[in-house]
Amino acid sequence: MIDNNRSNGVSPLSFFKPRFNVPKLCAGVVAASLISLSVTSQAESKSEDTRPNILVIMADDLGYSDLSAFGSEIQTPNIDSLASTGRMLTNFHTAAVCSPTRASLMTGVDHHLAGLGNMAEVVGLNIVRDKPLSAPWGQSNTYTFDNIPDGYQGHISEKTVTMPELLSDAGYHTYMVGKWHLAFDVLAPTQKQKRWYRLKESALPYARGFEKSFSLVDGAGAHYAPPQIPTPLDLTLYAEDDRVFPAKELPKDFYSTEFFTDKLLSYIDASQEDGKPFFAYAAYTAPHWPLQAPQDFIDEQKGRYDEGYEVVKEKRLARMQELGLLKNVSEPSPGAIGPKSWNDLTPEEQQKEAKAMEIYAAMVTNLDHHVGRLISHLKDIGEYDNTFIIFMSDNGAEAAPAFMLPIPGTQVDESLENMGKPGSVVAYGPRWAEVSSAPFRFFKGFTGAEGGTASPLIVKLNHQAEQRPTSDARLQVTDIFPTVLDVAGVEVPGSVYKGKEIFEPKGVSFLSSLQKPEAFSAVHPEGTVFADELMGASYVVKDNWKLAQQAPLSKTPVFRKDVPFSLYDLSTDRAETRDLSATHPEVVEQMKQAYQVYLRDNNVLEHASSANGR
Q: pTM for the full model?
C-alpha cells in the first residue's frame, strides 16, 4: 500500500509555472568567469530547473464508472488518491476508439488531421472487402491502397508536431511505455505479408520525440509472454527505442502492467541526478482484452459478480448518486441491449460470465496496484510533490469480442479453468460493458453515444495536497496537449514549427481553471462547437444540445443514410434517454450545419455504413 498521508504547509502560491530562463552574460565578463559560470551551472543545474515533472497515465478500454472514485465496486485506492489530492473531471471526452484518441493526445489536433481518421486495421479491411457498405473504400468505390488520403494512412501525420517533441526541445526527458498503436501504413496484402497494415518505423515513439520507450506496436496483444502454442493475440510486435521485435522475445515472466511500470521507473531513475524534469507517458494495455491477470488478483474477485449484470449496475448507479456524479442524468440509460439478461442464462453461462467480469476487475485492481507503485516511487525519490499527474482512459468500455484473424499454428483455450491465463482470449461482452459505461448509452466504438466517448479524468497539480471540487466542464482530449505544454511553460506552436508546416493545435489549456480553489463549470467559451466522426457514427455538441447519428447495436451492418439523427439536452439528459429532434427541428438544422463545417475543416471522409458493433 502507498502512504496516503497528505503533505502539509503547501501554499496556493506554489501553483505557478516557472519558465526556464537562460542567463545572459555581460559583454565584459572575462573568460575565467565564463569557465567558472559553466562549472557552477553544471553543479547547480538540478536546483535551477524547477519546472514540474509531467506524468500522463492512460488505461486501455476502462469504462467511465470502473474506478471506485467514480462509483465502482472495483477498489482502486491508489488512483482514488490522485482524486482525493487532485480534482475529478466528469465531462471529459475522447474519440470512441483507441488510436484516434492517442493521435489527438499526442498532437493536439483532430484525429482526422493527425493521421488516424480511422484505425489502420479498419481502413485496410474495408478496402479488402470492397462492398457498397465499405465506401468510400475499395476498388469499386473511391479509395484503394494506391490513393489513401493523408488523414487515413494509419500513423501520426508528418504534418503534426507531438507533445514529446516539443517537451524534448524544451529540455525535458521524455519516456513512454505501453501501447502506441500509431505506427502503421495501410498497404495491400502480399504473399509474404497477409495483413493490410504494416509497421512504419518512422512513426514509432523514438522517432516522434520519446528519448526512451518500450511499446506495444499493435492495437492489442496478450498480457503474458506467449505460451508454447500461441494464440493469434500473441503474435504481436514490440519496440524498445528503435529495436522492433516479436512478442516471443519478451521475458518469460512478462506481465504487461508490471513490466511497463518497471521499465518506466528504470527510465526515471537513470536520469534523475541530472536535474532535468521528465515527461512520462504510461499507456497501459489493461484492461483491454484478452482479459488476463495474475491469479491472486483474480482470486480476490471470486463471487463478487454472481448477482449478475443488472444488480451490479444498479448498485453502481446508487453509489454514483451518493457521490453526486449523476447531476445531469435525470434517468440513467436503461441498457439491457445485450443478447440475454442474467436470469435468461444457464448456470454454466452465468459461471463463465461472472468469471469474465472477475478477471476484468482483477486487471483494474492490478493496474491500480502498479499506479500505486509509481506514486510511491516518486515519493521515495522526492519527485512526487513536483509532478503534475493526469489519469484517463482512451475511450469507453469494450463490448466487442476479441478480434483475431485465423492464423495457422495458433490455438485458443477458452475453458473455464484457463480463463484469464496465457492461451485464453476472454472478452466480457456488451452486458458487462453496459455496467462499465453506467450511466451512459452504449460503449467503445459508438461515437454518437456518451458511453463511447466519456472517460474518467483525474488531474493532480504539482504541489497540490488537498482535493478541489469536481468539475463538469466539457473537455476534449485535444485540450490535454495545450494544458501539458502550459504546465511546462512551453508555447503551443502555430501553423509552422521548425520551418515545417503543421496542423495547428486547437485545444484549450485548462491549467488556470485547475488552479482555482473553487469549482468551475466551463473552460471553452459559450457557443463552442465540439464534434467527432468515426466509422460513420457522429455527434455535434453546442452548449446544452447534442445531435447524434448513431445506429443501435446489431450484428447486421446498416447504411449511415438510413440512421436518423437524434437530439438530446445534455443539461438534464446526458444518458440520452429522450430524443427531442421532433420538437426542436430548428435546432437539428442548425446543428447539422455546424457538423458540415466540422467535416470540411477536418478533411473527414464519411463512411457509407454506420458503426454498430461487430
A: 0.92
